[in-house]
Each structure stands twice: as C-alpha cells, then as structure tokens.
Specification:
The protein is an alpha/beta fold. It has 9 helices and 15 strands. The chain folds into 2 domains: 62 residues, no CATH class; 243 residues, Rossmann fold, CATH 3.40.50. Helix 3 packs parallel to helix 6. The termini are far apart.
Length: 307
C-alpha cells in the first residue's frame, strides 16, 4: 500500500482523527515514503529523516477502499484461484502497519502436499470429524481419503463453494462457536486456533467444545509459540501489548484483497504453557503430539473419557 505526506494543517488534523479510528496513520511509518519503520504508537510525532519535517504518513488509498467481511476476502481469493488465477493473493496487515508475506491462495491447496504436523494431525483423527476453519478443504479431503466422516466448516461462503467444487463431502457455512447436529469424536482446528480471537475467547470455546465432543472425543489443534518473535518489529509489537497488560500473543489484523479491505479483527497465537493452563482449568486433558520449529501440535481430550 503506497503512501503520501500530508502537509496541509487541516488535512493533517483530519488524517489524525481518521488514524485513531483505523490505526493506520503513522509518522514515517510507511517505508516507501521515508524508509523508516517507527511504528510504536499511532500519530507519533517524529521528524522524517528524508523530508526533514514533521509530517503524517497515511495510505494513499485511504477513503476509497471497500469494506468486506473479514474472512470472505480470503474465500474469494480461494475461489479466484480455483477459477484459474494462479497468482491470486491476500495481504494480511497488522495494525502497526506491518504487512506479513503475501498469502498466496495456492498455498492453501498444498500442491506439494501437507506439512509434517498437518499430516500428523490427520493421522490422529478418528471417528466422526468436525473440521473447523476448513478453508479450501485440503485437510478435509485428506480425512475423507482415510474413510472418515467429516463435516467441513468455514465462515466464508466462498470457501464453502470452493470445497463443493473440490468434492468435499459435507461443507457447511458456520462459525467456531456454532453447534452442529450430533457429536464428534474429533474436532480439528489446524492453523486456525487464532479464530477464538483472545484468551477469553479460548475459554469460551473450551466450554463450547464440551457440547461438540462425544464421550472420549478430542480436539486436535496447533499454534505458533509467540514467545519467540520473528523480527524486531514483532518484538516491539509484543512489548507494546505487554506494556498494556494484554496477552502478547494477540494480533489486530485486517485482510486486503484487490481493492477491498476487511474490518480489523483479533487473532491469537498462544504459547503451549498458557494453552495448557486454560485447557486444564476447563477440566480437559492436553497431550503434546509434536513440534516443528516454533509450531506445536496437541490433542485436547474430553473430560468424559480418554481418546
């Protein structure tokens, strides 16, 4: 996203008001403007090393972008890929302005096969399976290949359409907190536990989980350990959250696709110790299934029995 400098005092004042609403107005914060990444707080006052004046940097497209529901943009990208646009991608942007590496739709179809932990998760599925946040349906297809009955849930109608076109057996539009007919031996949330948004959401979901699982059922899920920041900007973001006494693994994000942007939404990576504490407080058992770098995989067992 490109940027411009606002020098007119009236426009600068208006931009300052706007930035507090959307969290995207940063002094010297956009690298194509001044080459600096000084994103410690919104509306910071700092002299730009290139322009030698105090100024506000804002996105060039501010005010002309179209709002869209959070995950529907991702679903549209998946659908466009399936329709032949092999280079389609989304941008995931944090509310400090940092954009993560592009999310190419192709990667959710795993043309080179599922990663090690994903394959391990599929192998641990048993009985009737509920795949939450199923996306393009690749994990559900792998579960079907094992001869298991799987219900594949995604909040995006476009993603559900993708799954239908890929012959996923039972794709359903739904949310992580929705209920579904019957009980499940396995609930799978792979690369998606962040959809609970925060630790309060995690506790809410664990209560909800008890109503999804059959006796002896299990949740198989994973996360990345946020205690190991990926770079200096990530470390600064976490330190800022800690200074506000909020869990450092949380992220405020938005999706950008073509000329559309989603609303800001919360996402969370949870470290294994914190996850274990919340799981045990909810009366469940937790077992480590494996790890790969900073990513780890666990099974969470229904307190009515063992999986």
């Amino acid at each position: 996203m490109r940027s411009k400098i606002i020098s007119d005092p009236a426009l600068r004042k208006a931009a300052s008001r706007q930035c507090k609403r959307i969290g995207l107005c940063w002094n010297c914060g956009w690298s194509d403007v001044c080459g600096l990444w000084n994103m410690t707080r919104p509306c910071a006052t700092k002299t730009c090393s290139k322009f030698k004046e105090k100024s506000i940097c804002i996105p060039l497209k501010l005010g002309v972008e179209k709002n869209a529901s959070n995950m529907e943009l991702h679903g549209q990208a998946l659908l466009d890929y399936l329709s032949g646009n092999e280079n389609t991608k989304c941008i995931l942007r944090r509310n400090d302005g940092i954009a993560y590496p592009p999310l190419y739709a192709k990667q959710f179809f795993y043309p080179e096969g599922l990663p090690k932990l994903d394959r391990m998760a599929i192998e641990h599925c048993s009985g009737r399976v509920l795949d939450i946040g199923a996306g393009a349906g690749t994990h559900s297809l792998a579960i079907q290949d094992r001869g298991l009955d799987v219900t594949s849930v995604d909040i995006s109608r476009n993603a559900v359409q993708v799954m239908k076109q890929r012959n996923v057996a039972n794709p359903v539009v739904g949310d992580v907190f929705d209920s579904y007919p019957g009980f499940f031996n396995t609930v799978l949330i792979i690369q998606n536990i962040g959809i609970v948004q925060d630790l309060e959401g995690l506790d809410r979901f664990l209560k909800h989980l008890d109503g999804l699982l059959a006796p002896g059922g299990q949740l198989i899920t994973d996360s990345f350990d946020p205690r190991h920041p990926t770079d200096q900007a990530d470390n600064a973001y976490q330190q800022d959250r800690m200074s506000k006494e909020v869990y450092p693994g949380g992220r405020t994000l938005r999706l950008e696709y073509q000329d559309k942007v989603s609303d800001w939404f919360e996402w969370m990576r949870v470290d294994p110790d914190t996850l274990q504490r919340h799981v045990q407080n909810a009366g469940f058992r937790i077992k480590n299934l494996g790890a790969d770098g900073g990513r780890y995989l666990v099974s969470i067992t229904n307190k009515k029995g063992s999986a």
